[in-house]
Write a structure and sequence with these properties.
The chain is an alpha/beta fold. Bound molecules: fe (ii) ion (2 copies).
Length: about 290
């Protein structure tokens, strides 16, 4: 069985539009038995996700989808958890796409298990010594210092390491995603759900392929020197997903996206791949599963 996997198509982003249409044509021409979209296909506007699904009408096999953090973005006052549980599921049903976060996909003794994944700041850079409250607010100290809305993270504290206000980035999930729970709670909930899906899959399939948008292993997290990028490593994913996945010997292949940088690591019999599409260069993987 030939599985095609791609991620981070970001069809809502103008500079991604042409490259996404081009890779959709390439994937349809290459063919395969299954197509897996590993997150960040679109964003707030779900009609763009519907258009994205339409681009793959030429692909003959079943299509599987897991969201990325960008599909969790909602209009102001919206509810990302409802988006995750209800809205994304119904868009998938409408287009005949299998929503992996609701349950595994099974075919020919193979299971595909998927999750958006999330982050619990465990991948944050210890060298930065930035206090946890900045990660929880998803703004770096320099950004908080310059913005009235975040001054409460600065005023009255004396725990900022020297130079930390040079970091001026913020992570847009802090503005666009509204989970109604902490990132740590959401990550825990997703790990529990992934465990249920892997338990089910391990009883029904000899081979399991895992597709998770956020990064499940520390080795796949880019290690940048630029301070702003070092700060955002906190939002790349969580090793708790990787530790769980490694408990299932039927899993030999894990694919993630999100980091926008191609990387592959071997952990025993397990191959973990960050697919590595960027905003302007889209790539896909071909996995032949016996
Ligand atoms: Fe992305
Ligand atoms: Fe992402």
């Amino acid at each position: 069985m030939r599985v095609i996997l791609t991620s981070d198509l970001h069809y809502d982003v103008p500079r991604s539009k042409g490259p996404t249409e081009e890779i959709a044509r390439k994937i349809a021409a290459a063919g395969g038995d299954l197509l897996v979209l590993v997150g960040d296909s679109a964003s707030i506007d779900l009609t763009v996700l519907e258009q994205l699904f339409g681009l793959f009408e030429g692909f003959r096999g079943p299509k599987l989808f897991t969201p990325g953090n960008h599909e969790m973005w909602v209009p102001k006052g919206g509810d990302s958890f409802r988006r995750y549980e209800v809205e994304l599921a119904s868009v998938c049903v409408k287009h005949g796409v299998h929503y992996l976060d609701a349950g595994p996909y099974y075919a020919n003794g193979v299971a595909v298990v998927g999750s958006v994944g999330w982050y619990d700041y465990s991948f944050r850079s210890p060298a930065l010594k930035v206090p946890l409250r900045f990660y929880e607010a998803k703004v770096a100290p320099g950004r908080a210092e310059a913005d009235e809305h975040y001054r409460h993270l600065i005023d009255g504290y004396d725990d900022l390491p020297p130079g930390s206000t040079d970091i001026i980035v913020r992570w847009m999930d802090g503005v666009r995603a509204n989970l109604g729970m902490s990132d740590v709670e959401f990550t825990g909930m997703l790990v529990d759900r992934l465990r249920q899906h892997l338990d089910d899959a391990s009883k029904r399939a000899e081979r399991i392929v895992v597709a998770i948008h956020h990064v499940p292993f520390a080795e796949l997290v880019p290690r940048p020197i630029v301070l702003n990028f070092a700060f955002v490593s906190a939002f790349m994913g969580s090793e708790s997903f990787g530790a769980l996945i490694e408990k299932y010997p039927q899993v030999r292949d894990v694919y993630c996206g999100h980091a926008h940088r191609r990387k592959q690591v071997q952990r025993g019999a397990l191959t973990a791949t960050c697919i590595g599409s960027t905003y302007t260069e889209k790539v896909f993987d071909v996995l032949d599963v016996e």
